[in-house]
Design a protein that fits this description.
The chain is built from 13 helices and 11 strands. By secondary structure, the protein is of the alpha+beta class. The strands form 3 sheets. It has a 5-stranded antiparallel beta sheet with strand order 6-5-4-3-7. Strands 9-10-8-11 form a 4-stranded antiparallel beta sheet. A two-stranded antiparallel ribbon has the order 1-2. Strand 3 and strand 4 form a beta hairpin. Helix 1 crosses helix 6 and helix 12 packs across helix 13.
Length: about 325
């Protein structure tokens, strides 16, 4: 018999009020017979659980009885209700723990505040993944959670974009980051082990790209001055600096400029806003935008169709023309109608 389950029954009755044995059983994933036994054990331990027979009856706590086992203030309980990310918790292998914690949070509130908190929880929903893609499979994410919290080394095989694509790494996980529905682990590698002269250098790994991982018994010390939030902000800034390696001069129609935010990165939109100058009297503008590569820029700008024209560089202009020509041939278009 689980003492934790008895506490869950107690907190359920405290937060929900009257509940039938069947409702308790369904909430905790046990049989109705087990729910009856758990209530009897609570009563035997001196908890004033009252039974109300008949239609609409059930079990409830004696009016005025409350447990303060949670140890939280009402304000803390309200605030933490906003921190629940069910999908992220499930990814981390913590769905059951989050559910139990939420139950304890609700139980810490008096009746009026508990009702308000429950109402609040029904009007906020967080859906982290971006549009137009399936959630990534991250079977090794719970392992990295364990490794991060216990400061243990992980032996991993990782698939990266450059050759050799499959590499082996001994990772010392410092933290986990959820960015737009994608999980990343920030970790130091074997070659990045800290020394007296050179502190460990962290790197970022996409958890879905981990092909295999084993939790070792080897421990490591997380640097005391390492701040995950500061590292991630620096990583993003460096990523943006490395991402854009060139520029292009483009012309946009009024409609193309309106469509821009839905088809290109925010950095490109900001660049257009900052550099746009009018060309002609029909509303077209010319602007200088950052580019990653010729092929990437070609694919991105083609989304705008006839509402964009590449002026420079010549390589990007040729790539656009070649792609449009190939499309015309594919559709049997050989010239103007």
């Amino acid at each position: 018999m689980s003492a934790g389950r008895l506490l869950s029954v107690l907190l359920l009755l405290q937060s929900r009020g009257r509940m039938s044995a069947r409702a308790i059983a369904e909430e905790l994933g046990v049989s109705v017979r087990t729910a009856y036994r758990d209530v009897e054990r609570l009563q035997g331990a001196g908890v004033p659980v009252c039974a109300e027979p008949g239609r609409g009856g059930g079990y409830r706590l004696l009016d005025g009885y409350r447990t303060r086992l949670t140890g939280m203030t009402e304000g803390e309980a309200r605030a933490l209700l906003f921190a629940g990310l069910p999908d992220a918790a499930a990814d981390l292998g913590l769905a059951a723990e989050v559910s139990a914690a939420r139950l304890k949070l609700l139980a810490a509130l008096p009746a009026g505040a508990r009702e308000e908190a429950a109402r609040t929880a029904t009007v906020f929903h967080v859906d982290a993944p971006g549009w137009y893609r399936e959630p990534e499979r991250t079977p090794y994410l719970p392992l990295f959670v364990d490794a991060t919290l216990t400061q243990r080394v992980v032996e991993a095989r990782y698939r990266r974009w450059r050759a050799p694509q499959e590499v082996s790494r001994r990772l010392r996980p410092y933290g986990l980051v959820l960015k737009s529905g994608v999980w990343y682990v920030v970790a130091a590698t074997e070659s990045g082990t800290a020394t007296a002269k050179a502190p460990a250098k962290a790197a970022t790994y996409r958890v879905a790209q981990v092909l295999d991982a084993t939790l070792s018994d080897e421990r490591f010390d997380r640097p005391r001055d390492f701040e995950l939030g500061a590292y991630w902000a620096s990583y993003l800034a460096d990523f943006e600096a490395r991402r854009y390696t060139g520029t292009a001069t483009i012309r946009l129609s009024p409609r193309g400029r309106r469509r821009l935010p839905d088809n290109v990165a925010p950095e490109v939109v900001r660049a257009v806003d900052a550099t746009a100058t009018a060309v002609g009297g029909d509303g077209w503008v010319e602007a200088v935008v950052p580019t990653e590569s010729t092929m990437h820029a070609c694919g991105e700008l083609l989304r705008l169709g006839v509402d964009v024209e590449v002026v420079a560089p010549a390589a990007l202009r040729r790539a656009m023309a070649d792609t449009v020509g190939a499309l015309a041939r594919a559709y049997g278009v050989t010239g103007r109608a």
